[in-house]
Amino acid sequence: MSLTFGKAFRALFIALLVVQLSITAAAAGENAPMLLASAADAASGKLAPDFELKDLDGNVLRLSQFNGKKSVLLYFWATWCPHCVASRPDIAALREKVPESELQILGINVGAGDSLQKVQRFQKGHPTSWPILYDADEKVTQSFSVQGIPLYVLVNKKGEIVYRSHELPDLRKLLP
Fold first, then answer.
1. Residue 14, CB half-sphere, CA atoms under 13 Å: how many?
2. In the sheet that 161-165 helps form, which strands lie side by side, from edge to edge?
3. Domain assignment of residue 18, given as a range
4. Is residue 176 part of a domain?
5. How confident is the model at residue 170 (pLDDT cuts 50, 70, 90)?
6. What pLDDT, on the 0 to 100 scale, is given for residue 18?
7. Are the C-beta atoms of 53 and 134 separated by less than 8 Å?
8. Mean pLDDT of 15-39
């Protein structure tokens, strides 16, 4: 019973963070990105923590498998997050503009408040052209210090974090 209560509490906490971040973003103006990593972190090329997660078909993906090949946009989200769902068309438009040979997009469901079955049902009704990964134990979410969703983290070909925000990045400035 306490495990169920704990997951429900975490989901409520994350939902409240999303609301708080939305209010903060509205107060700051639409064009002011909320960078969670300092400019120094991004400029210093802090290495992204490597991870291994399964997609919804059971295929294993590692972040490091893209090192030296292409940049990776990590999109942390949940089915119950209205901002996460609303951003999917923008990510789809980004996918159409930037070929997969240059950019891999990985949607990472944060696990809190979503079961694997719920994410699979959601994905069937709202398919994407990028892989959806499920972070069942929330280890990847924690390793990236996700404190509000949606969260976008851009990792360059060297495996370095070059962008981290609740807004989609302007890839013209960040991709070679």
1. 31
2. 132-134, 103-109, 71-77, 151-155, 161-165
3. 2-168
4. no
5. confident
6. 43
7. yes
8. 39
Within a domain: residue 173? no
Pair of tokens at residue 142: 């924690």
Q: What is the pLDDT of residue 175?
A: 81
Is 65 within a domain? Answer: yes
174 to 19, 40, 134, 161, 166: CA distances (angstroms): 28, 15, 27, 11, 16
Structurally, the chain folds into a number of domains equal to 1
Residue 174 lies in a domain: no
On the CB side of 122, how many CA atoms lie within 13 Å of its CA?
20
Write the Ramachandran bin of 35: left for phi over 0, alpha for psi from -120 to 50, otherwise beta: beta
Mean pLDDT of 149-172: 94
Provide the CATH number for the domain around residue 20. 3.40.30.10
Q: How confident is the model at residue 103 (pLDDT cuts 50, 70, 90)?
A: very high
Contact 161/172 with Cβ under 8 angstroms? no
